[in-house]
Amino acid sequence: MSHTDPSAPVVLQATGLRKSFGDLEVLRSIDLTVRKGEVVALIGPSGSGKTTVLRSLNGLEVPDGGTIAVGEDLELDFSHPVADVHRYALRDRSAMVFQAHNLFPHKTVLQNVVEGPTVVQKVPRDQAVAEARALLERVGLADKEDVHPHQLSGGQQQRVGIVRALALKPELLLFDEPTSALDPELVGEVLGVMKQLATEGWTMVVVTHELQFARQVADEVVFMDGGVIVERGAPAAFFTAPAHERTRQFLDRLLNPLG
Amino acid sequence: MTPDTWDLVQEAFWPLLRGTLVGTIPLALISMALALNLALGVAMARLYGPRPVQWLARAYVSIIRGTPLLVQLFIVFYGLPSIGIRIDPWPSAVIALSLNVAGYAAEIIRAAVQSVPKGQWEAAYTVGMNRRLTLQRIILPQAVRVSVPPLSNSFISLVKDTSLTSLILVTEMFREAQEVAAASGEFMTLYVMAAVYYWVVCLALSAGQSRLETRLERHVAH
Question: Distance from the CA of A256 to the CA of which of A2, A119, A200, B148 falls in 20 to 30 A?
Fold first, then answer.
């Protein structure tokens, strides 16, 4: 369901991202362009570097080289040392949903959601609370605002994680395997929310193992292996006629795990 | 128990209680409060300070933990006057006790901060917080919950350790017991009484500790 206008403004442009952990090269040269309203699914075997790409986009990892530009006015060139304050600026533009949700356990659901807007963005508390309630209602958690995260199911926790990200009003939403830690029967409710966000026009980069989600919701699927992008394309072509042998093998392993 | 001993117990009851209420307990409370503040500073210095500050914090912890409390008390009260610093018994006791407890508590707080999962830092960063805000609003509140049991143990030890300050002339409960014992010659009776007093105070503290723990345990990250 490709719905992106090819003339839509570019929200994210990463070029030549490189990163090593010691001797291990996890990113060799990654280029990624995401336009407004586009959903990009990053797939690949574990250790392929897809999570490192995502974390670099949010400034949680510092690439050794390459550039990341968000919007029209923020561009970081990692071939020189980048001051922390500039790297932190990435976090004003994007928000992240984690695999392990990482909700703040000592705060209620509502407090988790308004923490960023009130403490960092200095939004008046009444306004932040009203917006948080509206978002919680949209993901079906209106009645949970006063409970603590550990009182929720895994799927509910992850929906709160998504709301916490949305409340920051980012230009770009980053998802790091948001359903991988969930019991299978809870995956659907989280993917459902993400699908809804896609149709509302949010710009999203999603690291995922959910091929069906990638197929139905993504505008572009990017397959990574060994720190490089092996293949990318619209889901219809990507899943029905992958061009590379490595892509075929990976898809085959996921679709027929027993061989 | 002979009638004479019973009389002595009754006679010593109030002096020992007074020693507990105006000596032992306030000494422990004030020293603990000061120690916690100092320990937080030392733990932060040890974790996030520039290299030389980290080194100083380590040295402090190492010296405090590597020397007996009694020696520390004697240095402050009997040692400092020889370099011209004269401090009364009570403030000497507070200084030595709080410096001592802070050395242990700093390590407890450091471990508690480090036990908060890395994902909590990352989540706070991604909502836009800097390190200071993250520590203040996300990490320390969780570390406090983790450090309550070990800090409670430190406090209970501190209550008992105040008995050592009788040796630098602080009039706390054990000092009262010593005085009555010396006057009456009933050492066994008075020292067993003192032991019972400490035990009762520590029982009350343990009960308080369990209640605090159950209250705090509810919202901890795993």
Answer: A2
